């Protein structure tokens, strides 16, 4: 049994103190897990564009500081709170921003992965059970450390810290033989992209696909479509350097909208005899969403929206455009029900159905987290993996 069980742990975390302010690596206090909660030692965390969005703080309503960001990671259970049965100390786990309680009306239905209690909520900043935080700043007093200011949680997870506390619904146990560094990718980006193809669009062999935005999420869409036998995968990105990696994930054609004299959807319609079967929007830009929608074929074209849109602007589509028979749908975490379906996805990745190596383009120590943010902002990384804690594999 961990000798930290039931005790407050003091550890390092990267704390966001305000929008666009460099994260501060500092000591924090992490409370023990309460009923149906799990305390996890984070081993590796990668950075997703959604972390960047929260750090930028464009959507004022979602701002909450001080806060520990991060939602894509892999770790090991340090201790569990009362009532937790499916994980125990020492298990390898991945935190999930869109949880599954396995008991509510939605969890019992096949159609949705938006659990009534633990679905993703960008406004949420405290734990469900008591409305409190499990993180706080430390202050040195005579006789030792004592708690002071609360630090907010983020996306049910908060992984830029050596220890975090999660609702057990947001923790998925993984095969201990799985390659740990790669498992961080399944915590968000790769599952989101591959799942959008497999679970939402249900892409069929021999079909055509266009992917808008070739970051990790968009390239995971491409990799998912490649694995399903799509015959043509058109990648669209304003950063031409993304095409080289894209080829590894099955991208067959590349379009840079900056090079065009007519709209992207017109080009796609021209080269595919009327449009692709499926398109995926992975930039988080509403104008790009319109292009993605119109780049599909009339009659059966299907668009899946994956990007996150911090702007208050609404969809730039006229209702009559839906009479052309195209459809559009959104997806969270690629439609995966994390506890029920992710362990099987882990096995498929271990068999090589989906390649994970090319997604990790950089690795840095935890202290360099601000450099890792900069790499993503500059479009120079897909996923930068941070080693959060030192550990020994069993
Ligand atoms: P990223 O920053 O790595 O990639 C975004 C890509 O889009 C970049 O390559 C960039 O060059 C390109 N791009 C941006 N604007 C463009 C434009 N106007 N035209 C063409 N290309 C453009 O981001 P990521 O981590 O891959 O995440 C992608 C999106 O998915 C983000 O909006 C993120 O918040 C969202 N996301 C959604 C979910 C979900 O469950 N729905 C989960 C994870 C991430
Ligand atoms: Zn993410």
UniProtKB/TrEMBL annotation:
One of its GO terms (biological process) is formaldehyde catabolic process. GO terms for molecular function: alcohol dehydrogenase (NAD+) activity; S-(hydroxymethyl)glutathione dehydrogenase [NAD(P)+] activity; zinc ion binding. Residues 217-345 form the Alcohol dehydrogenase-like C-terminal domain. InterPro entries: ADH-like_C, ADH-like_N, ADH_Zn_CS, GroES-like_sf, NAD(P)-bd_dom_sf. Its cofactor is Zn(2+). The keyword Zinc applies. Pfam families: ADH_N, ADH_zinc_N. Gene3D superfamilies: Medium-chain alcohol dehydrogenases, catalytic domain, NAD(P)-binding Rossmann-like Domain. Homodimer. PANTHER family: ALCOHOL DEHYDROGENASE (PTHR43880), ALCOHOL DEHYDROGENASE-LIKE 3 (PTHR43880:SF39). This is alcohol dehydrogenase. The lineage of its organism: Eukaryota, Viridiplantae, Streptophyta, Embryophyta, Tracheophyta.
């Amino acid at each position: 049994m961990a000798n930290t069980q039931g005790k407050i742990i003091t550890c390092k975390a990267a704390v966001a103190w305000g929008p666009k302010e460099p994260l501060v690596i500092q000591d924090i206090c992490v409370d023990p897990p309460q009923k149906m909660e799990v305390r996890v030692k984070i081993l590796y965390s990668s950075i997703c564009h959604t972390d960047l969005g929260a750090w930028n703080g464009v959507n004022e309503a979602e701002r909450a500081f001080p806060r520990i960001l991060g939602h894509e990671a892999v770790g090991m259970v340090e201790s569990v709170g009362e009532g937790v049965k499916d994980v125990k100390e020492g298990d390898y786990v991945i935190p999930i921003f869109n949880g599954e309680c396995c008991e509510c009306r939605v969890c019992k239905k096949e159609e949705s992965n938006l659990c009534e209690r633990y679905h993703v909520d960008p406004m949420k900043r405290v734990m469900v059970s008591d409305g409190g935080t499990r993180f706080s700043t430390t202050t040195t007093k005579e006789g030792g450390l004592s708690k002071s200011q609360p630090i907010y949680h983020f996306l049910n997870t908060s992984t830029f810290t050596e220890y975090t506390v999660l609702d057990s619904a947001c923790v998925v146990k993984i095969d201990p033989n799985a390659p740990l560094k790669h498992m961080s990718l399944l915590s968000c980006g790769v599952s989101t992209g591959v799942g959008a193809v497999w679970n939402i669009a249900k892409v069929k062999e021999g079909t055509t696909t266009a992917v808008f935005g070739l970051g990790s999420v968009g390239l995971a869409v491409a990799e998912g479509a490649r694995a399903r036998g799509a015959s043509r995968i058109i990648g669209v990105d304003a950063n031409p350097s993304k095409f080289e990696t894209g080829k590894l994930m099955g991208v067959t054609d590349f379009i840079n909208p900056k090079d065009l004299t007519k709209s992207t959807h017109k080009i796609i319609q021209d080269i595919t005899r009327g449009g692709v079967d499926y398109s995926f929007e992975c930039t988080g830009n509403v104008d790009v969403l319109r292009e993605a929608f119109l780049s599909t074929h009339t009659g059966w074209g299907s668009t899946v929206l994956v990007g996150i849109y911090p702007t208050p602007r609404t969809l730039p589509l006229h209702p009559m455009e839906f009479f052309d028979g195209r459809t559009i749908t959104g997806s969270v975490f690629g439609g995966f029900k994390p506890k029920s379906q992710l362990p099987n996805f882990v096995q498929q990745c271990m068999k090589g159905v989906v390649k994970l190596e090319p997604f990790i383009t950089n690795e840095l120590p935890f202290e360099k987290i601000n450099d890792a943010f900069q790499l993503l902002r500059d479009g120079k990384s897909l996923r930068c993996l941070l080693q959060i804690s030192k550990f020994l594999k069993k």
